[in-house]
Amino acid sequence: MTRPAADINDEFARVEAELARRGYGRMDFDVSRVAALLDLLGSPQRAYPAIHIAGTNGKTSTARMVDSLLRAHGLRTGSYTSPYLTNVREQISIDGAPVDEERFVAIYREVEPVARYLDERAGDGLTYFDMTTCMALSAFADAPVDVAVVEVGLGGAEDSTNVLQAGTVVVTPIGLDHTEWLGESLEEIASVKIGILHKGATLICAIQEPEAMAPILSRCAEVDATIAREGHEFGVLRRSLAVGGQLLSLQGLGGTYDEIFLPLHGAHQAQNAAVALAAVEAFLGAGASTRQLDPEVVREGFAAVTSPGRLERVRTAPTILVDAAHNPHGMAATVAALQEEFAFRRLIAVVGVLDDKDAPGMLELLEPIADAVVCTRNSSARSMPAERLGEIAAGIFDAERVRVEPSLPDAIETAVALAEADADEPTGSGIVITGSVVTAADARALLVPAGKGRDRR
Fold it and tell me: Could you give the strand order of the β-sheet that contains 235-242, starting from the edge strand earlier in sequence?
């Protein structure tokens, strides 16, 4: 018997509230708690192989590309990414689609009693991320999936996802971020992130700074892992701009793949594509004896890729782009893509950041390309006040180029007015809304219609 939609919606809302009480931003780096919960659930993470993805930037986009390529090859996939943009269900996808509300509730009701038992024994509750991780890994076993594509939440060694011990591991570019938890240097951060590499695995590694590469190579030797490095075994051979994205030629582990259309912008997305292709080749056994994947299937997989909130065009006239860059490393990639691929006569940046992020570093990167910056805040409790962000911006931009609007809707309205300020030449202006995943999510909720690339209840 089909349950009424209102009942399902109400129960899903209760589950969201229960998860929220565990503290969305609460960190507890103890993977043993997750391992214990999964053991009691029958170790669902052992029911399928996995591709495990760590790094500072590019994890979600790379995960989406890996997932799309695997599905193009006829495999049923489970994908777990974080954070979500609109709805927690986005984090747990099967065959490219988020689980529905009824399934999400059912998964939670299976996991929650066991989690509550462990909470009572330990005297401290599992975190929000612990719970969604266990839910995802359980859902994949129930589906069942042929392969899971799993993104690390934070760090690596003690991240909740490090119960996988995956045979294929990916490390995207590593930069300085979350230094309060992971360490103050690239070497320290890389040492934590490469903790997801286990004995006998294959590592697909993006180009890294030498300081980050040293602990990665050390870990490979320690666990007898095979490594394939961007710029050595695989990489981007050529890229050119195309309508709606870019055209790529990629060197894979097993051969060259030409005429690949990627509907995403920026050299960083081309890099993510090369990493994703190598990961899928390694997983499927291509490259071991120079065997190549079918180029047509690879083209099909890349052409179907989407990555919401990554230089995503959500409006025209003026063009409004939403981008989730939230640290200087990510912002540098965004700025490079804006300069190369968008010939804006006038660009306005709407920026909202979290309080613990490097706001000066991001604003300094935006300053040469933005005619004005509108400082705002997002819906997170950790959001930096717009006034303080404005003070930081005033020390980087000329004072007349800085506006402060604490409300994001007002900030967008101000940005549109600034973009259209030149009445003699009103076209060719652009707005980029950036600074945080939360800012990107809030902007999408305001600007992307329901049913078009987003999920609204």
Answer: 235-242, 245-251, 256-262
